[in-house]
Amino acid sequence: MAVDPDKLTEIIRATVDLYRAGEHGLLRLVTRYLATGIDTPGWAIERLAALGQLRRAGQDILDSISDELAETVLQAVANAYAAGGASVLEEIPTELSAGAAAGAAATAVVPRSAAMEALAQALVQDIGARHSNVLRHITDVYRRVVAEGTAASIAGGLTRREASQLTYARLVEQGVVSFVDARGRRWRMSSYVEMAIRTVTQRAAVQGQVDKQRRLGLPFVVVSNEAQECERCRPYEGRVLRIGSGPTGTIEVAHQTTGEPVTIDVRATLDDARSWGFQHPNCRHSVRSYLPGITRLPRQPTADPDGDAARQRQRAIERAIRRWKERELAALTPAAAAQARARVVLWQGQMRQHLAANPTLKRLSYREQIGAGSAPR
């Protein structure tokens, strides 16, 4: 069987949790610095004077993450590659040949993949390069809250705490621990890391599977059927792909066990499918070995509109829970904290009702935590 997306989620858990905890810590840090002495007359001057301390404290948090980043990413990629290779042997019927056991023993040890290690190192460098942008944005948010909160309190008849809360809430919605990419999209740091590490480990799992299939002489794979597939992946869902070069389309090949000729439809090569958008960043599709004459393909078409709608509603509820948990953490007034807590409870109730009405869905508690989600706003 192919490597389950949930298995990959477990593989990347350490890296993603590292950044979720970091995002939580940085947001708490900024909130604490803003709230200190907020009702005293010299608050603005004192807070701006403390900016250097805030920057150093934020840098310490990011440095502690960096110390663990390389190890967690390298381990995740290695585990994904090994899982991909192991998945192939689980799909081969024992009656295929007398040499199946020998083939399993010969391929039991996964060789170190220089390409996978290079992929992991590139990801570590890419993520690490974002740290300075995140720290700069944190200090910019801090300055804006101090400046706009003070000005609004003077002009609008609000207390300084109330005015600062309004400004800070708006900036929290945009993402305090975030950066803007080259295309102008604002990413929360943890969301970017989740997207990047999921994409790389998914690719590593497929590569591990493909490498082992080549050694075993299995040239075909079939694409998994995943919920909420995008337009780029839908043409390949449940279809056969060739892992190397060779003819595609309707072709005749040997039955995997009998050797008799069978006709199969090969949609494309794996490389061509990727060049046309399959397995794009954050794609959850996997592939498994296709054995001509044995493997049964999913029924076409694979779309599930009702299931997709239910899952999309679950994602929306998860976003709402995360949003109000973040607002609660960043509250500068008791009223704001109470309102956010009430909204969290409300949306958690909505989640329970939605899952009860759609029993095929399962609750993913990690997606309700601050920093979950893998797409920019």
Description of the structure:
- This protein has 377 residues and is α+β, with helices and mostly antiparallel strands.
- It folds into three domains: 5-216; 219-303, no CATH class; 306-368.
- The protein contains eleven helices and seven strands.
- It has helices at 5-11, 13-35, 43-49, 51-91, 100-106, 114-156, 160-174, 189-216, 270-275, 305-329, 334-357, and strands spanning 178-180, 186-188, 220-223, 240-242, 249-254, 261-269, 287-289.
- The strands form two sheets. It has a five-stranded mixed sheet with strand order 5-6-4-3-7. Strands 1-2 form a two-stranded antiparallel sheet.
- Strand 5 and strand 6 (261-269) form a beta hairpin.
- Helix 1 (5-11) packs across helix 8, helix 2 runs antiparallel to helix 8 and helix 4 packs antiparallel against helix 6 (114-156).
- The longest helix has 43 residues, at 114-156.
- The radius of gyration is 25 Å and the shape is elongated.
- 36% of the residues are buried.
- InterPro entries: Phage_A118_VSP1 (IPR009319).
Strands, count: 7
Instruction: Give the domain tally.
Output: 3
Instruction: Give the H and E element order.
Output: HHHHHHHEEHEEEEHEHH
Q: Count the DSSP helices.
A: 11
Q: Label the overall shape.
A: elongated
How is the largest sheet built, in terms of strand order? 5-6-4-3-7
Distance between the termini: 35 Å
Low-pLDDT stretches are 97-102, 106-111
Radius of gyration: 25 Å
Strand count, sense and closure of the main sheet? 5 strands, mixed
* Average pLDDT over all residues: 87
The secondary structure category is alpha+beta
Taken as a percent bin, the fraction of beta residues is 5-15%
Proportion of residues in helical segments: 55-70%
InterPro entries: Phage_A118_VSP1
Protein name: Putative phage minor capsid protein
GO molecular function, one term: structural molecule activity
Pfam families: Phage_min_cap2
